[in-house]
Amino acid sequence: MEKPALISGNEAVAYGALAAGVRFFAGYPITPSSEIAETLSELLPRMGGKFVQMEDELASMGAIVGASLAGVNSMTATSGPGFSLMQENIGFAFMTEVPCVIVNVQRGGPSTGLPTKPSQGDVMQTRWGTHGGCNTIALCPWSVRETFDLTIDCVNLANRYRLPVVLLLDEVIAHMREKVVLPSFGGVKKVQRKKPTCLPQEYLPYEITEDDIPPMADFGEGYRYHVTGLTHDPTGFPTSNAKEIDQLVRRLYGKIERYRDEITRIEEEYLADAQILVFAYGSVSRSAISAVKEARARGIKAGLLRPVSIWPFPDKHISRLADQLKAIIVAEMNLGQMIGEVRRASCERVKILGVTRVDGELITPDEILTAIQEVS
Amino acid sequence: MGRLLKYLRLDKFPTVWCAGCGVGIVMGCIIRVVDKLKVNPDKVVIVSGIGCSGRMPGYLDFNTLHTTHGRALVFATGLKLAKPSLEIIVVMGDGDALAIGGNHLIHAARRNVNLTSIIINNWIYGMTGGQYSPATPRGAFATTAPYGNLEPPFEVPELVRGSGASYVARGTVYHTRQLDRLIERGMRKEGFGLVEVLSPCPVGFGRRNQMKSAIAMMRWQKDRAVSLKRASKMNEEELKDKIITGVLFEREAPEYTQEYERLMSRVKTRKEIGKREIQTGLGEIHEE
Ligand SMILES: Cc1ncc(C[n+]2csc(CCOP(=O)(O)OP(=O)(O)O)c2C)c(N)n1
Ligand code: SF4
Description:
The complex is a heterodimer of chains A (376) and B (288).
Chain A: E1 4-8, H1 9-19, E2 22-27, H2 34-43, E3 50-53, H3 57-69, E4 73-78, H4 80-96, E5 100-108, E6 114-118, H5 123-128, E7 137-139, H6 144-161, E8 164-170, H7 171-175, E9 177-181, E10 226-228, H8 242-258, H9 260-263, E11 266-269, E12 276-280, H10 284-297, E13 302-307, E14 309-311, H11 315-322, E15 327-332, H12 338-346, E16 351-356, H13 365-375
Parallel strand pairs in A: 2-3, 2-4, 4-5, 5-8, 7-8, 12-13, 12-15, 15-16
Antiparallel strand pairs in A: 1-9, 5-6, 7-14, 11-13
Helix pairs in contact in A: 1-2, 1-6, 3-4, 10-13, 11-12
Chain B: H1 23-36, E1 44-48, E2 63-66, H2 72-82, E3 87-93, H3 94-100, H4 102-111, E4 116-121, E5 124-125, E6 131-132, H5 156-163, E7 167-172, H6 176-188, E8 193-198, H7 214-224, E9 225-227, H8 228-231, H9 236-239, E10 243-250, H10 256-268, H11 275-280
Parallel strand pairs in B: 1-2, 1-3, 3-4, 4-8, 7-8, 9-10
Antiparallel strand pairs in B: 5-6, 7-10
The structure holds thiamine diphosphate and iron/sulfur cluster (SF4).
């Protein structure tokens, strides 16, 4: 039943979550993400799922990890201030390999900042926010329809790699309404968790397997095991053995490195012969594509690279392009977060120019076009 | 006794706890009650926060979850909502439950999710070396209260009762048979139940507070604890310095997971999807 619908990015998150089989949501109200919770509070109980409004974001994050251990696909949604509060338990989910999805609808910062306006100030926090050195998968949509698709991808990635996965939105995408045609939920591809096939007494919850992803049993199924945020051995119990710790931490971090090519996704426009590359993500990439088209109309060979997976960062793509290009323009609503990654990945073999804005307004096509003209 | 060993992960012994610590005694009570109630161990979940008390799940052969400091109740809430058939016991320290986790404690009680929670109250931060907690008595000494603690402690049962719990009890590790009964009643109770257990920490608390040995601390419990029944026959003067134990409060109140299940069946049968169907064509949400 594919009917066109006019929905917002936040609603697309809620529908994507339901389509992907999310059946548990815990959250705490915060602008500009609250419509996700509101929509799910209405629809989850009708689909056999549970919604709970917790007392804060620390609680929301803990609750989704708990629910996920019971075998239920789980999600929370927040914005900057709440995302900061979630960090400790995001690290717990990473360490204990419990799949879950965190939606962060970015708003202006620092601090309470600009609740109703967009920003991209949490990109580095997404990568490095929790202590101890975790690795991250984060996806970043630029349209309502892509928000629906990437929400599903986040759930699938979380289940496939046993990780917390972040969907990074900004206020513009969250509140923008677009006409979309959503697929039938039944036809959506769902990745199931790898389950143990051995006898309970043989189960090693953190087994070192060939694919680096240990099978996951649900609590209550008969596989009685231990989950701890302490460094643990393959049996799941605390260890202070240097070799076991090294093996665990490297495997956790390395899971994403190993599957980097499988996870990394970019979208490119007019890149084949481009001399000037605009690097932009989320809502800013909408202005960027207009600027690129306008530049082309004026005879400048410009192109767009949009990281769909913002983490892991598309190192290879940038590195490969660096020699072909005259300049890279990084447009972002912060004072320079992704630009550092672009510099690193390109080894600064090419001129790099930032276009930034932190006043709560979207970067305009004109601002990007001006930068393109400046470097061309 | 031998029958109970099957609930322990004996290969993880010896425990991390000091000689004379009360945490292991509470662990003994829990397995006796699970055994008595014949709960299927596959359905039992022990959730803890961080602290000496937080290490208990590691020694118990159930589904065990050692979470972050103060957050045990929120993980437990998620688990219980997602799978109501689980029998969940939450074990917390006093710092864990009352300081960093205080907000979760009052909200879990208010929400009235069917969890049995136990605060092992040793009046001190044991694991980090004896700093004062929100349960440390006024005037007591701690590594961060070298001149005596200025802060008054929480009255835990009052706090949890006022927050909406269905069941509130207090016991001590000296009175283990009473403690068994209090935990058992908590597990039988539908709704949020809390058992506050006074437990000695000779290393973090006793040493600095004129109770050098574990025996001195146990004697203190023996002398000070008075059951609610006995207390009712005592006058104010006699009750001074006493600690009242037993089932302190019990009530019938709507339990959250059951209420939610009811809500689900109520809205599932609703024919129209209203505004959203028109907007999105999500008619098929009824398919599942
Ligand atoms: C967020 C956070 N803050 C602080 C700590 C350090 N810490 C570990 S255990 C503990 C206190 C333990 O005291 P209590 O909860 O009373 O439990 P006990 O050890 O006495 O059983 C603290 C503060 C931590 N692990 N995490
Ligand atoms: S420090 Fe105190 S609470 Fe911790 S194990 Fe020792 S006696 Fe028990």
